[in-house]
Amino acid sequence: MRTIRLFLSAACIFRVGSGFARPGVGVAGFVGGRGGESHASSSPSSRATDGGGDRGKTTTTTSTTTTTPIIDDGIDRSTTVPPASVATTPLSSSTLAGRVERALLSEFSSGGDNKNKNNNNSNIDRVLASWRYLAAGYEHREYVGGGGGLDEDEEDEDDEDTSSSKSKSKSKSKSKSRRSTSRCYQHAPSYVPGLTARTWWDDHVDNHAGWARILGGSYRAIRDEFVDVALSSSSSSSGHELLRSAGNNVWAGALTSDAESYGEGWKTLVLLNRGQWDATNANLFPVTSRALRDSGVPAVEAFFARMAPRSAIRPHSDFTNFVLTCHLPLIVPMNGTNRCRLTVGDETRQWIEGRLTLFDTSIYHDAINDADEMRYVLMMRVWHPELTMTEIEALQFVYDCLEVPDMLSEDEGTAEAARRYARSMRDFPSLSSSSSSSSLGGDGGGSGGGGFGGGSRGRKRGGDDDGGRGGTSSSSSSSSGRARRKGGGGKGFGR
């Protein structure tokens, strides 16, 4: 029997954020979950641009040419164009990425012997393009702010009269100036083409996302449970150790090299990761877990996030454009006094307890806690609302292949068993009847551990600095069935 696990140490894909991966590095951190160690690529062609140094020059790769203005504020203002030929060129089946692609095409082929047999491959063209871009090392960079999107090398039209030409020249000059200082730049190595990029999604929350109203209505119950389980129980050193030993990766830090902008003061406690429930942690927070399920939120992942007092998160992207980020602030020190702030693109807002916000973290963003106490939010990454249900299922299928690589086995029995296991990992776990700090002594319930894997779900690792799940994304609470029953699928969206 042939197993794909033999590929993992040499694979070219590594997950960052909610995205599939980062090209050019090992897959160990990808399979290990959110905080697995990553290693910088030694291959200069593995990244389309260098988001760190070497600013102020033109960088040429096999996929695109980018120009970076000289501005030392941590924002890479280079732009790229998706390579058209890459999107339509099949990957080699001798690579892990190629095997995932082959499985994806088989699963969603019109004549395939599977639940998606009525689908057509053209329905997942954007997902295939995204996967091929990633495998080729393409990283999408785009200016997504206002100002008409004028390029610096765009020339005035010759047929304009003098007055109009001067006016247009002045407008263009203002646009160039705005773009040279704006923070509204998207950076997405995991990039599905054709999706709208904008900083804040207020209209969607207010007028289209029924799940947002339902989840917002559960704010008080979620907050009370969180205080009871995560704060009251851990107010003493013994209680803190009990919480750590009862849960998985409790308050783990963002320890990957790509997540270093988060700093040491940002920690997470995960409930849902890439569509797979953490049964142990869900049992510690059954009220919150049920609220997430019952709201129908199209979540890719869900976790509690804390930010240390007097700390800041530097400008960065979360690398993925097909999920958005949602915050439900639970505890904001000095609430309403503008001491805890989040900036996305060029707009800064303060967290307000109980006020749900939705924004795009493939656009540069940063945060600050200028208070003397810890800030806590319930954080979700949700599918972009412009994805189709078929695309969501296809993206979830890719996540499952990377979490359970035996799905790619050439042995039919092994592959089918792995698929059943992957589906079971997305099932909502059996939960205790109530939430209380006394539940810390429970057995965790639900499923997990054993079986096929590579995922972190069945392993209890715990502690503030274990390097477990460091902080970014996952996948939907169901790829098809539950999303449809709860109304959270279809055109779902994220972080």
UniProtKB/TrEMBL annotation:
Coiled coil: none annotated. Residues 441-456 have a biased composition (Gly residues). Keywords: Dioxygenase, Oxidoreductase, Signal. Residues 167-181, 482-495 have a biased composition (Basic residues). SUPFAM superfamilies: Clavaminate synthase-like. Residues 150-162 have a biased composition (Acidic residues). One of its GO terms (molecular function) is dioxygenase activity. Residues 1-21 form the signal peptide. InterPro entries: Asp/Arg/Pro-Hydrxlase (IPR007803), Asp/Asn_beta-hydroxylase (IPR051821), IPNS-like_sf (IPR027443). Residues 34-93, 143-183, 426-495 are annotated as: Disordered. Residues 219-385 form the Aspartyl/asparaginy/proline hydroxylase domain. It holds the Pfam family Asp_Arg_Hydrox. Residues 58-90, 430-440, 472-481 have a biased composition (Low complexity). Belongs to the aspartyl/asparaginyl beta-hydroxylase family. This is Aspartyl/asparaginy/proline hydroxylase domain-containing protein.
